[in-house]
Write a structure and sequence with these properties.
The complex is a heterodimer of chains A (254) and B (299). By secondary structure, chain A is an alpha/beta fold. Helices cover 23% and strands 22% of the residues of chain A. In chain B, the strands form two sheets. In chain B, strands 1, 2, 3, 4, 5, 9, 10, 11 and 12 form a nine-stranded mixed β-sheet that branches. Chain B has a three-stranded antiparallel β-sheet with strand order 6-8-7. In chain B, helix 2 packs parallel to helix 3 and helix 5 runs parallel beside helix 7. The chains are: A alpha/beta (254), B alpha/beta (299).
């Protein structure tokens, strides 16, 4: 077996989660690589949708921005961003959306706005963009992020995009949120699911060579662990070849 | 009727204190030449709005031309943050009315439709809404749905004084085509009282008439047409030119400190007479030629 990096198994695990999916809302960076890998492997018919108003993208280079012209060249549709949100996202036509996070709590609520106080933060982040409405409307939300204690926090500094809120059953429905919220968190060390009852993040799978203790050390709350904890399938040679030769040859993201 | 103007004339039509909707999106189709001219003319106290905060807003904010930014967050994507916008917020010189992309697009849409408010399902359950309730309570409200009795969050229409839009093709009457992704630009134009079009190519109206289905901005909504190549440099314009990665990196670095940004302004904004001087300064025809879009790829 070829050696692989923690980032690479994060990408292959994310891509495999898209098996059988049809329409995915993609962000630049890691989600872009994961979704493009899925299209070349487990989900050849996957429709990649980008916030700037692009359907069916076939990016020929690694996009550096959601507005990157490479997303439009050879795409199947360009539309106004509001169309995409109004007709497709609000219309319930987006099956999966990938979101990145700066902070995430145990119920999958997401912060991408500030670290620290809003007015005088330690770091001001890019904010919502479409993330808030995506978190509310997409049928399922997948999250991809490196596992770190500063990311997996007890208390968000700002809730940009609601997940399972405070974990009360029916809470999303009470807010009239059409989507089912976060269903999956893929990291460089482990994969998490969410308890269907409590909305709480549950350790589902650890990557080969990683211990539960190492995962817990990077999470700020006492982790729930699945009854039958899995070991993640490592990347295949073909997946690694696609990532290294086609998707991120310059090592920009990985 | 010709609306052809110089950049200086078009910019001079905007009074200090106006609300300007900007067409940029992170590092794409930003109104950079426009921003540089606004700064040179010393226009102040602007409100700027755009769904995804971009380099045009950042430069204007850094130069002290902006009092309020209405946006859905933003960045220079892989090149970095909106350092000037962020610094303005943190130093209290800039008021940030922060939405999400859809909620701001809906405010433009309500403005465009002439409706008194628009219901929205987004924002609820987020701190974005909590903060808006504190900062801009007059822009949001709640109404009961007369059909179901459900209580809905509603947003007030947004009607900018002027939309400034970077396009690829326009005629002198202001009929304009935007190629590639166009994010919230159509809603901005439809909501705004008037529009300034900055175009890469100026074409005879006959060209527009041959493919009227491509027209996204009708001329009658346009007050000025400015024909200015590379007006979005260093950001990209699909089918015209790619972004100038080196220059954006330089900007991202320079804007990390007020002193660095002042040096940048002194060189690239105050240090040149006009857009042509700027284009020479950043490398002239030889450099710009390398950015011209490949006809197949479009960048």
């Amino acid at each position: 077996m070829t050696n692989y990096t923690p980032s690479e198994i994060m990408i292959t695990s994310s891509a495999r989660a898209l098996a059988g999916e049809r329409v995915v809302f993609v962000g630049v960076g890691l989600p872009n690589i994961a979704c493009n890998l899925a299209q070349r492997t487990v989900a050849p018919d996957l429709e990649l949708v980008y916030e700037s108003g692009v359907f069916g993208a076939r990016p020929a280079r690694l996009p550096l921005s959601i507005g990157d012209p490479t997303l439009i060249s050879r795409a199947t549709l360009a539309c106004p961003m509001p169309d995409l949100f109004m007709y497709y996202l609000q219309g319930g036509r987006i099956e999966v959306a990938f979101l990145g996070v700066a902070q995430i709590d145990r119920f999958g609520n997401i912060n991408t706005t500030v670290i620290g106080d809003y007015q005088r933060p330690k770091v001001r982040l890019p904010g919502s963009g479409g993330a808030c409405e995506i978190a509310i409307h997409a049928k399922k939300v997948f999250i991809i992020t490196h596992l770190a204690r500063r990311t997996f926090v007890e208390q968000l500094h700002f809730c940009t995009s609601p997940g399972h809120l405070s974990g009360q059953p029916g809470e999303r429905a009470a807010w009239d949120m059409p989507g089912t919220g976060p269903q999956l968190v893929v990291t460089d060390k482990a994969i998490f699911h969410f308890d269907q009852e409590t909305g709480e993040m549950v350790l589902f799978s650890i990557h080969p060579g990683v211990t539960v203790e190492e995962v817990q050390a990077e999470v700020s709350w006492p982790l729930k662990i699945a009854a039958e904890l899995q070991i993640t399938e490592p990347p295949t040679d073909e997946e690694l070849r696609i990532i290294r030769e086609e998707l991120d040859p310059g090592g920009m993201y990985l | 009727m010709t609306k052809l103007s110089t950049l200086a004339e078009a910019v001079a039509s905007i009074p200090s204190g106006a609300h300007v909707a900007l067409s940029g999106f992170a590092i794409t189709r930003c109104n950079m030449a426009f921003a540089r001219e606004v700064i040179r003319q010393g226009i102040r106290r602007l409100t700027v709005s755009q769904c995804v905060g971009a380099m045009d807003a950042d430069m204007l904010a850094g130069a002290g031309a902006v009092e309020r930014i209405i946006y859905g967050g933003g960045s220079l994507d892989r090149f970095g943050r909106l350092n000037c916008v962020n610094r303005g917020i943190e130093e209290g010189t800039l008021v940030a009315e922060e939405y999400s992309s859809l909620s701001l697009a809906f405010r433009y849409l309500a403005g465009a439709l002439g409706l008194p408010f628009i219901p929205i399902r987004s924002l609820r359950g987020s701190d974005i809404l909590k903060r808006l309730q504190e900062l801009a309570p007059a822009e949001i409200g709640y109404v009961d749905d007369p059909f179901t009795g459900d209580n809905w969050l509603v947003l007030k229409p947004l009607i900018p004084d002027v939309a400034v839009v970077q396009v690829q093709v326009a005629d002198e009457g202001g009929n304009a085509w935007i190629m590639g992704p166009r994010w919230d630009n159509e809603e901005q134009v439809k909501a705004s009282k008037r529009t300034i079009v900055i175009t890469e190519h100026l074409v005879p109206t006959e060209v527009i008439r041959r493919e009227p289905e491509r027209t996204l901005i009708p001329g009658f909504r346009v007050s000025h047409v400015v024909h200015l190549p590379f007006a979005a440099h260093p950001t990209s314009v699909y089918r015209a030119y790619d972004y100038d990665a080196e220059h954006i990196r330089h900007y991202a670095e320079a804007t990390k400190t007020p002193e660095g940004f002042q040096k940048y302004l002194d060189k690239y904004v105050y240090g040149v007479q006009d857009h042509w001087g700027y284009l020479e300064l950043v490398g002239g025809l030889k450099h710009l030629n390398n950015l011209i879009a490949d006809p197949i790829l479009g960048y």
